[in-house]
Specification:
By secondary structure, the chain is mainly beta. Helix content is about 5%, strand content about 40%.
């Protein structure tokens, strides 16, 4: 039997990202004073066809107090949901304790529960029952229950990722390296691409799975401003065509199945710099350290070790304190927030704050098209059959870190290894590779390899060299030691 608190259950599900930020939590539990009297469970509706457009709506359970039979006993409440035929033999349980008389379950969360927990099929009704049980601190009062029948029809969950692929796109038809669209922070069913498009065609994949039999969004044959969900690669493979190369903003809404393709001007700035005592630049505005341009001209990155202090991002010309800047929305902004504002002048001089607790190596990614910034800690992982991690990308244990120094001590088996600064999917970041193929561990020269471009060289551990070793990588000094 699953005894799961609402907030814990919500966090554990593979839910529709961003759509479920409004999911069930303790904040959803209403403290309204209920009607006194025999226990009676009520719901928003006994039958409901769920729709993707309901993702911000809640399904409400509420109940009356129950009767303590004159004892004045405190009453605790538990809500259970199960398939109708199970007779509550394997329910989802929500224990609320006392003084809780209502519970709001987000529709998107409810839909995911139907599909993953109860095995429902999208478009097919499933019969459930909900039961609320009141138990009494005074053991002389027997528990009381109230049951309601429910009939829900779930929908196919909307995709949480979208990738543009085609010969009009920066990575062509290489679907494994297809460019991700950015989910809109204001509308989680909307995705945006800002960047260059060449003459040619494109469509949208829901993942970077190399199989062309995956799900795609393609062009509606009757309206180029509409998209069609092309499940499993079936249906007409209609694509959009770019006739003039340039900068474009493409906005896709997977709920309304609409697309907007707009030619846009070049990015507002072609160079960015970091300035502040938290950065290696210090407060040197004349020759600060520069960000690195990416394939997307609106996106720049910067990686360095940040120390306690403040920083902001200079755009436009160096040497001008009252020039153009990217700054946080509030002063002393924490590093985890993603909002950023572009402004000029010396007013509202907000800065990011690095504390002694948050100091360390970070990668900063600034998206000028969407005014979004991601400041993420940098980890380093050893990967390869010579290491305990094996080749299990996505399940790697990081090296220990202190500032810019990363250390690992353990057993190296006979085999190969290299290092990666990402733990997601192959080709999604930077690797640290040997300078030559089958390089001995006595040779610590290395190169950086981004997005699988360049030689995939590895260190080779022989049977004689196998055993306990300590490896240290310093990203500030670009040095490696293997002892």
């Amino acid at each position: 039997m699953k005894n799961i608190k609402p907030i814990k259950y919500w966090a554990a599900l593979p839910l529709v990202a961003l759509l479920l930020v409004f999911g069930c939590s303790d904040d959803d539990l209403q403290n309204n004073i209920p009607q006194a009297g025999p226990l009676q469970l009520s719901v928003s509706a006994n039958e409901m066809i769920l729709e993707p457009s309901m993702y911000l709506n809640n399904f409400k359970f509420s109940w009356t107090t129950g009767t303590s039979e004159g004892t004045g006993s405190s009453i605790s409440y538990k809500l259970e949901i199960d398939k109708a035929e199970n007779n509550f033999s394997n329910p989802i349980e929500y224990d609320f304790g006392t003084n809780k008389f209502a519970f709001d379950l987000n529709v998107a969360t409810l839909n995911q529960i139907l599909l993953t927990t109860f095995g429902a099929q999208a478009g097919t009704p499933i019969a459930l029952q909900a039961r609320v049980t009141a138990t009494f601190a005074d053991g002389s009062v027997s528990p009381q229950t109230s049951v309601v029948d429910l009939l829900f029809t779930p929908y196919r969950p909307l995709t949480t990722t979208l990738f543009i692929v085609g010969d009009a796109t920066p990575n062509g038809w290489d679907i494994a390296n297809a460019t991700a669209l950015v989910p809109s922070s204001a509308n989680p069913v909307e995705f945006v691409y800002n960047g260059t498009l060449s003459t040619g065609n494109f469509k949208f994949a829901v993942s970077q799975d190399g199989c062309w039999c995956q799900d795609f969004y393609t062009k509606d044959g009757t309206d180029a401003n509409k998209i069609v969900y092309n499940q499993g690669g079936s249906g007409e493979d209609l694509q959009w065509t770019i006739t003039e190369s340039g900068m474009y903003k493409v906005t896709v809404n997977v709920l309304t199945l609409t697309i907007i393709i707009e030619a846009v001007d070049a990015p507002p700035f072609t160079q960015l710099w970091i300035v502040g005592d938290a950065s290696p630049s210090g407060w040197n505005i004349d020759s600060p350290q520069a960000f690195t341009a990416t394939d997307n001209p609106f996106i720049f990155t910067y990686e360095a070790t940040l120390t306690p202090g403040n920083f902001k991002i200079l755009a436009g010309n160096t040497g001008d304190w009252c020039g153009q800047w990217y700054r946080p929305l509030v002063d002393n902004q924490v590093l985890s927030e993603t909002g950023v504002a572009q402004n000029s002048g010396c007013d509202a001089d907000n800065k990011w704050l690095v504390t002694s607790e948050t100091a360390g190596r970070y990668k900063i990614t600034l998206d000028m098209a969407n005014n979004v910034i991601h400041i993420t800690p940098v980890d380093v992982y050893i990967i390869g059959d010579a290491s305990p991690n094996g080749w299990s990308m996505g399940a790697l244990a990081p090296m220990s870190k202190s500032g810019s120094t990363y250390t690992w001590t353990g057993n190296l088996a006979a085999g190969e290894f290299k290092f990666t600064k990402f733990n997601t999917n192959w080709c999604e970041g930077t690797e640290i590779v040997a300078a030559s193929a089958n390089q001995s561990i006595t040779n610590t020269n290395f190169n950086y390899r981004d997005n699988c471009e360049g030689d995939d060289n590895k260190w080779l551990v022989t049977a004689a060299q196998a055993g306990n070793h300590t490896i240290t990588v310093n990203l500030d000094t670009n040095t490696l030691t293997i002892n």
